[in-house]
């Protein structure tokens, strides 16, 4: 232990269950002072320091390694320090065996994604060059032919980690390498399929991404991109499957966040004539855009984004009339959000201007739109009964209509993209899963619950394939190995998805007309209060908590039943069916 007390010695210091890369700052009169590489200072009596508290740092940890499997000391501290050391040298990619860890640099790195870099990685095997996302994409492409099996790349990480950008880089690399096949004819090499797949990204980002407090370009939906590769090695077609669009964002956002990019791009990019025709002005004038207090993001040029979307739609063969109708629909949704109500023997529209503009743009009759928003229609024994709505119910009807319109628009856009890139699904394929990252906001709703549940399942998949199946293979081969202690999130998933789990109780309550969010919360507390992964708050009256693999998250129960039911009133549906 004596060398641990020499000034300048590099050590690992264990503090609060974590290992910190540290330097012995001083040692005098039985007192040792350690300074971590992250700026903290810890002081101990020399007599109290043990091997559990302080261990020597191997030179490989000091220098950093391409593959974390090569680290001499393997613990959380050494992994974080290796990533930190490489990050400081703009080496944002690091292998963990066959897994690639990526650290978001939040700035461009010269030469990292240039065509020459793509060319270099396309001609070398995995491990022959420094870690890179192109190396993973290239290995996936090679394995497609080597193993004759479909391949899949899973991209996981917290919100803002760079998953969407990684997806685009993989698509770009595979697009380039597929055109390098020696067997391709000139006609095949000039095919537009690859470009069309790449150009789908700006469209999907505009309609499916938004600024959150964590990420200025956060995916608010999950997607699976499937690329069909023909026998000659080029991308012959593809398909996009979308999951869980966050419809609620259309009508409300948390403070400091924005609605979907496309709304701001529309207002910034439309020509003057169309802005006048659609009665459009600035984002500050629309309830669906101004309520969060954030209508502008200085890191995004909304006008440039609009140009990119229009260019991409042209490549994807959207007709001018289709683009115009999408713009008209989006404008109609914005005006719909500006409809306000007052109480006058039930809810009444206070100002007719927003209603008239919305009805015109959506092809609806103003009177019928007013009736649908302010009263509920039902038939009893063949007779129609009209029930007036209060102001809050009218607002809910307005918002429900806006969410349904946007969701249908988003679904149509995805279908249009798929019709453009559709290929032969009998060919081998490479799949890329880009799912929303783990989220923990100040207030978390049903959307965050579903997002984090999806991430929990993805983590289980990683655990199963990286730990369980590997160790099972070791046992089968009779290898001597040390059991790896890893965090099994199976019990957390049981809490969510098993019989009488959180999802089952939410679905059960959703079928009872008299059930409320409060009765749901009572059932959750009653059933799971003693579960280690369930948290019953001592103070918050509307919350329940779940201890996820990435940390504890408190969820606000308010609105869960309504969102889970996801019902759409028949009279609103009939109204849309009669639109011109």
TrEMBL record:
ATP binds at residues 157-164. Belongs to the TRAFAC class myosin-kinesin ATPase superfamily. Myosin family. Keywords: Actin-binding, ATP-binding, Motor protein, Myosin, Nucleotide-binding. One of its GO terms (biological process) is cytoskeleton-dependent intracellular transport. Residues 63-580 form the Myosin motor domain. It comes from Pongo abelii. GO terms for molecular function: actin filament binding; ATP binding; phosphatidylinositol-3,4,5-trisphosphate binding; plus-end directed microfilament motor activity. This is MYO10 isoform 11. The keyword Nucleotide-binding applies. Gene3D superfamilies: 1.10.10.820, 1.20.58.530, Kinesin motor domain (3.40.850.10), Myosin VI head, motor domain, U50 subdomain (1.20.120.720). It comes from the Eukaryota. Coiled coil: none annotated. One of its GO terms (cellular component) is filopodium. It holds the Pfam family SH3_19.
């Amino acid at each position: 232990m004596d060398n641990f007390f020499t000034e300048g010695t590099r050590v690992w210091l264990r503090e609060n269950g974590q290992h910190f890369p540290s330097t012995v700052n001083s040692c005098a009169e039985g007192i040792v002072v350690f300074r971590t590489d992250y700026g903290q200072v810890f002081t101990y009596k020399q007599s109290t320091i043990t091997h559990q508290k302080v261990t020597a740092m191997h030179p490989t940890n000091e220098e950093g390694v391409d593959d974390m499997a090569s680290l001499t000391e393997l613990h959380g501290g050494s992994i974080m320090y290796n990533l930190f050391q490489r990050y400081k040298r703009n080496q944002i990619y690091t292998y963990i065996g066959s897994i690639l860890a990526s650290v978001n640099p939040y700035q461009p790195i010269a030469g990292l994604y240039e065509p020459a870099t793509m060319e270099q990685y396309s001609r070398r095997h995995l491990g022959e060059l420094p870690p890179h996302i192109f190396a993973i994409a290239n290995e996936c492409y090679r394995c497609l032919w080597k193993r004759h099996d479909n391949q899949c790349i899973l991209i996981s990480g917290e919100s803002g980690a760079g998953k969407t950008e990684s997806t685009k880089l993989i698509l770009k690399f595979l697009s380039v390498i597929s055109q390098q096949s020696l067997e391709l004819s000139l006609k095949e090499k000039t095919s537009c399929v690859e470009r069309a797949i790449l150009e789908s990204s700006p469209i999907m980002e505009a309609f499916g991404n938004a600024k959150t407090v964590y990420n200025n370009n956060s995916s608010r939906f999950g997607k699976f991109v499937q690329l069909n590769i023909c026998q000659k090695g080029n991308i012959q077609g593809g398909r996009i499957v979308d999951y869980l669009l966050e419809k609620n964002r259309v009508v409300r956002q948390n403070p400091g966040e924005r609605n979907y990019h496309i709304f701001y791009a529309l207002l910034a990019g439309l020509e003057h004539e169309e802005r006048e025709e659609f009665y459009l002005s600035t984002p500050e004038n629309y309830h669906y855009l101004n309520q969060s207090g954030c209508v502008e993001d200085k890191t995004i040029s909304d006008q440039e984004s609009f140009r990119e979307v229009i260019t991409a739609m042209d490549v994807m063969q959207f007709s001018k009339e289709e683009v115009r109708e999408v713009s008209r629909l989006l404008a109609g949704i914005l005006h719909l959000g500006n409809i306000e109500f007052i109480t006058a023997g039930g809810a009444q529209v206070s100002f007719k201007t927003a209603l008239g503009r919305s009805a015109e743009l959506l092809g609806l009759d103003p009177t019928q739109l007013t009736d649908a928003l302010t009263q509920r229609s039902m038939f009893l024994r063949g007779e129609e009964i009209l029930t007036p709505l209060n102001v809050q119910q009218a607002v809910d009807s307005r918002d429900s209509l806006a969410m349904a319109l946007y969701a249908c628009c988003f679904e149509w856009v995805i279908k249009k993209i798929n019709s453009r890139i559709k290929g032969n699904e009998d060919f081998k394929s490479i799949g890329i899963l880009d799912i929303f990252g783990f989220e923990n906001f100040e207030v978390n709703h049903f959307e965050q619950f579903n997002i984090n549940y999806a991430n929990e399942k993805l983590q289980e998949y990683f655990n199963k394939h990286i730990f369980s199946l590997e160790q099972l293979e070791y046992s089968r081969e009779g290898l001597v190995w040390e059991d790896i202690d890893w965090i099994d999130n199976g019990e957390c998933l049981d809490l969510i998805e098993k019989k009488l789990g959180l999802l089952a109780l939410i679905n059960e309550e959703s079928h009872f007309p008299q059930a409320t969010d409060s009765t749901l919360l009572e059932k959750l507390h009653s059933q799971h209060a003693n579960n280690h992964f369930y948290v019953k708050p001592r103070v918050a009256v509307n919350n329940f908590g779940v201890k996820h693999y990435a940390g504890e998250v408190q969820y606000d129960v308010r609105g869960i039943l309504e969102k889970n039911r996801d019902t759409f009133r028949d009279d609103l549906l009939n109204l849309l069916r009669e639109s011109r």
